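Q: I'm writing up a methods section and want to include an example of the input and output format. Could you take the sequence below and give the corresponding predicted structure tokens, formatted cleanly so I can copy it straight into the document?
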Amino acid sequence: MNRDRKKLTALLCLCVAFAVVILISNNGTALQGLTMRPAAAAVALQAEPSDEPLQITQNTNPRALVLYSPGYEDSVGCQKNVCLALQHLRIEAESLELARTQSVSYADYDMVILASAYWENEMTDSSARLLHYVEEGGKLLLATVPESLGAQFDTSYRRMGVADFGDYLTYDTITFAGELLPGLTGRTFSGETFSDVALSVTLEEGATVWAWADTARDRRTPLIWSYDCGRGRVTVFNSTSGKGDFWRGILAGCVNTLSDTVLYPVVNALCLFIDDFPSPQYESESDVVRDEYNRSAKEFYRDIWWPEMLRIAKIYGDVYTGLFVATYNDETDPDRLHYTQSATEQYFGNSLLKNGFEMGAHGYNHQPLTAAGGTPAEMQYAPWAGEEAMTASLQKLGEITAEMFPAVTLRSYVPPSNYLSQEGRRAVVQALPDLEVISGIYTDEEEEGEVYVQDFTVAEDGVAEFPRVTAGMAPDDYEQLSALSALGLYGVFSHFIHPDDVFDPDRSGGKSWEELYRSYCTWMDDIHKTYPWLRSLSATEAGDALRICEGADPHLVFGEEEVRGSVENFLGPVSFYLKTDRTPKAADDACTIRRISPGQGMGYYLVTVQRPNFTIRLVAA
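A: Here is the clean output for your methods example:
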């Protein structure tokens, strides 16, 4: 009998082992996203920079002159956007009023960027001098379509690659004909949000078109193109869009076209946020899921929503950061803060943690940390009396977290409804002593109130400013291009969803849960297939990856046959984008290189620099 029992036990163990092997072999997805995280997801942030001596110590950053018109809001916005893009590309920018060009020596700069549509009237010297600079080996980016055409344009348009021109067109569709940024080739984006004006042009035969603009009446004109002029190069962004945050990555791509080889550090992170998770909303009722599933909201989240969100995360090894909000009361008086523990919140919080994900802070309640007037009146949020009250609310959240989830340290924070005042930010830092990351939003859509808009950077107080770029279960073309634009400049996919997206008519767009989930899965599949090298990270890990990238100060020497580099302030392995028309080869094990653009020829590569000094050999294709 004992022998039979032993045989049976052995057989059961063998079956279990066999099942595990099958699960793991099924695209390697069964255990990904659980506590057994992929080794590639680790971010090795060093406490101190490497002490390896640098082989290159001189400042090698290119210099750019940005010409703009301070009297025009659109030009100021474009100039700001260009300068931020240049900063991340590690190009030093100097801005100058367009009306003062007669006093500048263009030859002192590696490139000139015209961030004004008003050069026809404001440029005090002839544009011929600027184009002569290009013919002698300079680089010129026209970052916006000219507001009017006259003598200045007539003098220069042929040297910009324009053979002929006509009227202005209003377009609403963009098609990328080339790899302006990683993953853009062949993609088309359309809709009212892309509506803009471009000049109808016919290009010289030698021009390279990176993107086309199409109108609703089937007219087409080049939107972005490059043209070699003498020993230099001109790139034109035939649009007025350059002033928007959304287009910052596209502007960076335009800058990249000016050079045959470029190399700049990126974060390399895929980060997914779930706002209001865990939260008390699971105790609510909804006719949407009652009619469709014959379930309460709590049962829908437990039986359908969360299992399906886990399923897609496990398929790709994605990591969620859930943002904990303890209560939905509107109390802002520190003396009246209270909480009744919820078994449902406990359940979802425990499940989040059990699956190896991160829990961050969203708030004691969902009242944004702003004073009176900090949020739009129609949102009916209760204001806080001051910084002290805001601090007390987050301290209360810390106490609740310690009681319900004692293993959790709150290191990340997402402001409710994306509103956060300066007083509120100070309160967050004071109340959460282990805070490492704040995640607001990336795009300023000129909303009313104290919306917390960020760029990817590390603040003076050491907190990583890591914005969410996109949102929703069924992203439209605008959201999708926004994601790809940010991926091209920062190497970041940062997205957030709400568990109740299906209940909100605006966020759901009238779609059922099955339709929303199908759209989300399709998008995740596209992102992972196009950018399979992205590291799936929690918010805190992504903050560390940003610190490595932000801290890296590369000294680069470009030659015909190689790129030599030394990274000052090396805080761990650094990811770089390399764009080249050559075939790059690592000279030794100081770096690894992976092509990330489709096909062959000119394209982008991911370079992972393992040590401060490295060399990339450039082999003729």
